[in-house]
Amino acid sequence: MIRRHLLAALLAPVVLGLAACATPQAPGSALAAVPAASGRLSLTVDDVQGGPPQNLITGFRLTGSASAGTLTLDGALGTTALFIRWAPGSARLVRGDGVRDYASLDDLTREALGESLPLAALFDWLQGRPSPLGPWQAEAGQASPPRVFSQLGWRVDASQFAAQRLLQASRAAGNSPGGATPGVQMRIKLDAAP
């Protein structure tokens, strides 16, 4: 099946937002108002049937923590295309076509973006270090702390983080009980200190 969820999830709310001249508003939150991280996110999801990959480049803001946080993805003309909020046992997606609740952050990102993304681990990865959310393994020949490591099925490259505030992470294509899983490449360039 060709994965078109990614672009459709972001473009549909933008079109709806422009048509209505309104931006989906993020619900009130007890989370800190200062972003933990913000910048540009580039995401490429390969097509498991050999078609062209799906690409997304957008601004983002990440706040809170691994256990309770928010992620905002920008749309056209300064609108909010997607707003994601999570807390223990719940995750909520707000976009131009409404609000939807999910049992987990994995379920939400899989539905909204076409593939599960390690949002909770990003809080540590964007500090240039492995997350305490799971075991990790450094690539050979590195000093401590590692700058290139594998965790949660992803290869994380933070070697350019200190100098350029750039993080790259990739997940190889593979097979799962539900079928083939596409390769995913994620590139994050921060423009604000986490």
From TrEMBL:
Keyword entries, A-Z: Lipoprotein
UniProt keyword annotation of Lipoprotein present: yes
Top-level taxon of the source organism: Bacteria
Keyword flag Lipoprotein: yes
Protein name as it appears in the record: Lipoprotein insertase outer membrane protein LolB
